[in-house]
Every structure is written in C-alpha cells, then in structure tokens.
User: Fold this.
Amino acid sequence: MILEIKNLSASVEDKPILKNVNLRIGGGEIHALMGPNGAGKSTLGNVLIGHPDYKITGGQIILDGKDITYATPEERARAGLFLAFQSPVAVEGVRISTFLRIAYSHLHPDEKIVIADFNKRIKEAMKTVGLDESFISRSVNDGFSGGERKRFEILQMLILKPKMIVLDEIDSGLDVDALRMVAEQLKKYFSKDVGYLIITHYQRILKDIEPHFVHVLVNGTIAMDGDRTLSDKIEENGYDWLKEVA
Amino acid sequence: MESTYVNKDEEIDRLINDLKSNGALDYGFHDNINPVYSTGKGLSRQVIEEISEIKKEPDWMRRIRLHAYEIFMSKPVPTWGPDLSGIDWENMTYYSSPDEVKATNWDEVPKEIKDTFEKLGVPEMERKYLAGSIAQYDSEGIYNSLKKEWEDKGVVFMDLDSALKRYPDLVKEYFAKAVPPSDNKFAALNVAVWSGGAFLYVPRGVHVDMPLQTYFRINGEATGQFEHTIVVADEGSSVHYLEGCTAPIYSKDSLHAAIVEYYVMKNAHGRYTSVQNWSNSVYNMPTKRAWVEENGNMEWVGGSLGSKVTMIYPSSYLRGRNATTSNLNIALAGPGTVKDTGAKAIHMAPNTSSKIIAKSVSLGDGKSIYRGLVRINKDAVNAKSHVQCDALLINDESVSYTMPHDEIYEPTANFTHEATVGKIGTEELTYLRSRGLSEDEASSLIVLGFLDDVMKEIPMEFAVEMNRLVKLEMSKMGAVG
Ligand SMILES: Nc1ncnc2c1ncn2[C@@H]1O[C@H](COP(=O)(O)OP(=O)(O)OP(=O)(O)O)[C@@H](O)[C@H]1O
Ligand SMILES: [Mg+2]
Assistant:
C-alpha cells in the first residue's frame, strides 16, 4: 500500500494551514513527522481522513493509485486508511462492541462475523493493550482517561487491521508501561504491507520503532526530510534553525 | 450485568435483520375491510346512545357517557399547545367495529386482520415474551389471551367491554376515577365514546413476572380510536403492562384519544411501557394517569415515535407516604410533526419521590416540546423530585423547547432540574466514519446513544422497534446538517 500526498494545501475556517505538502509512504515504511506546536501536523491527519471541517484547496491524496482527495471518511477507511487521533472524542451511548462490529463489517465485507468470536477477539485485544475486559460494554471513549483513549486507538488498529496508519501523538500522555506496550504492538503489527506515519514530539518512541524517514513540518510546509539523525538534531537544537530554512 | 448488555444489543440487531428479511418494515399498509358496524361521521347525543346500545352496557355507563359528552361540548379545543385546528371533528368516525369477533385463539381471527397482526409481529411477541395479550382493531378488542398460570392466580386481563360485562362492579369502582371527564376535552371525549382498551386486575401479593400487552391498530381512515384502559395493581402486587400502536398512512387524519388509569395500591409496583408509532395522519392525544398509594412505585416508560401531533404527559399522583415514581420518555419528532410531551408528578404525601427523564430528538423541521409539571404540596415533607430533559437537534431547522412548571409549596422539599440541548456533533460523526461507518449508520448510532439511558429500560421487542425507527428516519434524512 502506498500513500502519496502531492502538493497538498488545506485550510480551516478559511485560514490556510497546509501549504504544498509532499509525502510518500510505502508499505513496509515507517515515517516520523515532527514539528512545533501548531505547525499543522494534526491538520494533515484530519485532511487525510477527510474531516469535513478541513477544506482541501490544492493538491492530491492518492492511496494505492486511487485518488481519494475528495473521498468521504468512510471510503478512505474502507480503503485501508486509519488515523489514531491526538484527542479521540467520546461518543455517548455508543457501545464499543457494536461500533467495532459495524466498522469491521465494512472494512472486511467478505468475512462473516460470528458475534461471540468477534467479542472474544475484542476482549483479548483489550488485554493486550491493557484495558479491562469490561470496557467492551462501555461507550466509545466515554469517561475514558487520556491514556485509556490512546490504548483504545491502538486496540481499534489491532481489531480493524488497516494498512496505512497515521498515529497522531500516540505517545503523549502515556505512562511508561503503556508507552512500552504501544511500541511493542506497533512493532508487532508492522509488516511490508503496512505503512506508518508517526506524528510525535519525542525521541522515546522513535528509539523503539526506528523510522526510515523523518520529516519536519513547520508552518504548514515540510521544512526538511531526512533520516533518523534528523530527529536527534531536533532533540538537541529545537526547531528554530528550521524555521529559517522554511 | 454488563455481558447481558452486549447480548441485548446483539439480539436487537438480529431481530432487526429478521424484520428486514420478512419485509415487515413498513407499517403504513392498510386492510380493505369494511366495518361491520360504524356510527358514521360526526358526533351527537344520538351517536353516544347508539354506541351504548351496541354494547348493551349498564345504564350507569350510558349516563356517564352522556354527562361526559356535555363536558366535551362545553370545553374549547385547547390552544396553549400545538395547532389542533386540523382535527376534522365533523368528518370523524367515532365508532367503527370490524366484526363481532372476540377470539381467544389467533385462528379464530378473520384472516386479513390476523395477517395484519402477524405482519406487526404481535402473535410472535406473545409467544416469546408475554403473560397475556389483547389486540384491538379500530374500536374493538378482537383477540384476548391470558396464560393459565395467571388466570389461576386471579389475574383479570381482557378488553374493557368484556370486563364491564363480567365484572361490572370492579370496573365501576375504577372507571373515570383517576381521570374524570372534566380533566380535559379529550378525556371527556374518551369517556363519552370509549370503546375497547384493557382491563387488568392483579390481586394482592401476585407478582406477574412477564409483561401483558395490548396492541392497538387503527385501520380506517379519519377514524377515532378511544380506548379506555384500567390497570389495578392491588396491595403488594407487581405488574408490567405494555402498549404498542400503529396505523396506516392516509390523507385524512385520524384521532387517538385514549385514557389510561393506573391504580398502584399500597406496597405495589406498577410499570407501564408504551411505544407509539402512529402514522403521520394521526393526532395522538391520550390522558394517562396513575394513583400511587403508600410505598407504591409507578414507572412510566414511553416512546412517542410517530403521529402528526402528540400531546402526552403521563402523570403520577403520589397519594401515600413513601410513594415513588419514575417517568422515562423518548420523543422523536420527524419532519412535519410535533411532539408536545412530558410528565407530571404531584406529591401529595411525605417522603414521596419522583424522577423524570425526557429525551427528545428533532429531525428536519420536527418540533419537540417538553412540557412538565412537578407539584409538591404543602406538608409533603421531605419530598424529592429530579427532572432532566435533554434534546438533540439533527438539522438546522429542527426545533426544541422546554417548558417545565414547578410548583413547590413545601419548604423541606428537594427539587432539581437539568436541561440540555445539543446538536449532533461533527467530531463524533467524523470519528465513527473514519472507522468505516456510513454517515447514516454513524448518525443513527449517535442518536441511539443519546437515547441509551432510556433504551436500557425498555423491553427488547420495543427497543427493536425504536432502533429500527431511528435508523429508518436517519436514512430517510440523508445527509445530516
Ligand atoms: N478545527 C480547527 N478550527 C480552527 N483552527 C484550527 C482547527 N484545527 C487546527 N486549527 C489551527 O491550525 C493550526 C495547526 O493546528 P494543528 O492542530 O494541525 O497543529 P499541530 O501541528 O498538530 O500542533 P500540536 O503539536 O500542538 O498538536 C493551529 O493554529 C490551529 O489552531
Ligand atoms: Mg497535533
């Protein structure tokens, strides 16, 4: 699976945020996206999934050769795209088991779901990500702590099995054990068919899952592309030197 | 607890799929049945005499009817609520009976009518979940059953006309007591022309652990249905009574003006659940009231889904010490319809408590109004009441109002009120859609999620109905916004 982002520009409430962003993520590739607060990283994630509040003003998004620039969020999800949200929203009264079952039936239409088996799978995945089994009958993110929400995003990835995965600060707000678990699961899930775009502020997660490429977004533009060493440089020097480049 | 919950969701999904595959998704169909007896169009003293005559009822009932008719004529159509000018009083048929059927076995019911109830899933529901069942078609109850176990314990469950013949004194003791004809114009009309409805009597100490149900079907065009239901839960007993209703879609409007009188005696527990899914050509104006005595508990659970205009405010009169009541209500105001719904709790004794939870969803230009009354009388020492109304607006033109009336005359009373109005959120929708759910699915899940705390309280078969309707309405709406 290949995700190509070509000259992508986007605005929110008529305010231009992304300007000519170019990225190409292939299967079996891990990319990290870094950048100062407010640079537009989450905006990129939202634009990629087709969030209706974000308007694309130029460029293209191509997933496996198919232009999905103006596709609906569900079409993109069904094509294999997944975003782990920076701040997942609570959906009151919508039970996790029901939600995941409907989602799965769309993402894997050829598979027949046996409810009992499927719920068992969810419960096992809950154990894996460190959520209590009883969460299966809770509502989506409702009353979840920050860390529980992040764990639940990983759980959804494990259950729904997407191919092109954007992780928006999956490492923020996690305790050390959770951080280790997330890194471990991401490593385990990774394959030559899976592409990751890991949005992060921290070195820590990149030590566990080594990115093949590091990109830095400043002011809505990719200011620099590089390898692992680029993140080290940022850790040492911050972003100011890049702002001049951009 | 939690795991049965997951199963309930699944069971609902399964039942909905069953319904889909049976093709029983549209209740708007009608039967071509000519009534065997009808009083024709319009209302007069003579029509009332005629109804009384057909029913061969005691003279006291005839006199109550005529008295109620006078009250009906003297009261103006209420103008404080929704527009009722569309009710065509002159061209309404006030009594219409399909046949002189009083079946106790579905095979005795005329085929076309039986098929209708089959399509509505009534006999199946009865087999699976119910202790007893009545089916009413236009003005008359045509089918009645009660499992032997309950009959042996002295439970009485039959249409009110039959009860009036078999147990005239018992009926007389309760008829039009909690809801007298002077209460309001529609109650007066009901007492004047009532026909059908259920009579349910549960003797002292008997706990009926399966629900009993009446299913009401209006078939005729511009036909009134005026059933009168009486439930008596005698001391220390408990019972759950259910009602479901549907009607075909017509160009001329029908009127449904029912009365439900629920008597919850000392230490008894009464529950009433109704889901009405009248078509958009029905004015639904019932009066429902419970008298709750010492230590008694009354629960109202209602779903107002269909109809053109609905005005309904189930009331609990907490007459004895420690009497309690809860009222959970869901109103779904589809495009072009008005739901003026709410609840009343009248605290007349010390330590009484009430809880009212009302949830409304307005779609398109649908209008939902919460109208409620909590009265805590002087000397209702330490009475407690909590009211919560939440409204969800689906479209920009959707409307919701909240009109609570609180009359608190007792200084030791504890009264709280919460109200929220929300729109279906883009963030929630997008989150669900980003996992592959269609916009319809996402919005129906959100709506059902909003209704969840009431949905939990309703029996499975009604939850299915509610679920199905919300999904149907959401898919009809297309894009949300
Ligand atoms: N829905 C929105 N409405 C208004 N402004 C928005 C919206 N989403 C993003 N923005 C604005 O766009 C800019 C980029 O925000 P974005 O969330 O993409 O930054 P970020 O790079 O993810 O930052 P952080 O590292 O703090 O998460 C910010 O100025 C932000 O205020
Ligand atoms: Mg961000």
Summary: The mean pLDDT of chain A is 96. The radius of gyration of chain A is 18 Å. Chain A is about 35% helix and 25% strand. Strands of chain A lie at 3-12, 15-25, 30-34, 54-63, 66-67, 81-84, 164-168, 195-199, 213-218, 221-226.
